[in-house]
Amino acid sequence: MKIIPLWFIRYKFFNSLFLGLSVGAIFTLYAPLEPSIYSMGGVLLAMGMLIVARFYHTILNAEWFFRISLFVEGVLLLAMLYFLYASYNYQTALLLYIGYQITFVFGNYLIRAETLLLNTDILLTKLDTVKQIGYLLGMGLAYLFYKTLTHYGIDDNQTQVYDLHFLLIAVELVVIVLIIKSFKRV
């Protein structure tokens, strides 16, 4: 497989837009969890990252990068769909936390792989620029989204975060399409 930089940069923009939109929602989503869960989650995250790092010799290539990227985005999509389906409770918060932690296990790998696969300073500059623009735009849109809901009398945090997930799922679907367009078989 080979990365198509133009599509990959678009993918990373929408991926960062998603992150910016979702960053504030985490505090509401995880509210039912006790602090010890975060400690255990951090330990398991670090162990998972160590395991992934041990496989770099096999997975630092475009084929695995595509597979793992698609897997990570699929986990996020499933977690969000589950959240919309299930009620707000401890189990939902825990499953969402686990889902996000699974995606974080691959964080270092994904950054290293994209750096190796887009190995020119021009592409990396474009990539990091669109990532920051997407992140900032996402945070700004989330702010406006929450303020708009409050203006219309929807001021409950849980309801606001629930409603935001419809937008997050739409962005996530764009992210998945762009991942697929970002790679081609050679």
UniProtKB/TrEMBL annotation:
The chain crosses the membrane at residues 12-31, 37-56, 68-88, 94-111, 132-149, 161-180. It comes from the Bacteria. Keywords: Membrane, Transmembrane, Transmembrane helix. This is Uncharacterized protein. It comes from Sulfurovum xiamenensis. The lineage of its organism: Bacteria, Pseudomonadati, Campylobacterota, Epsilonproteobacteria, Campylobacterales.
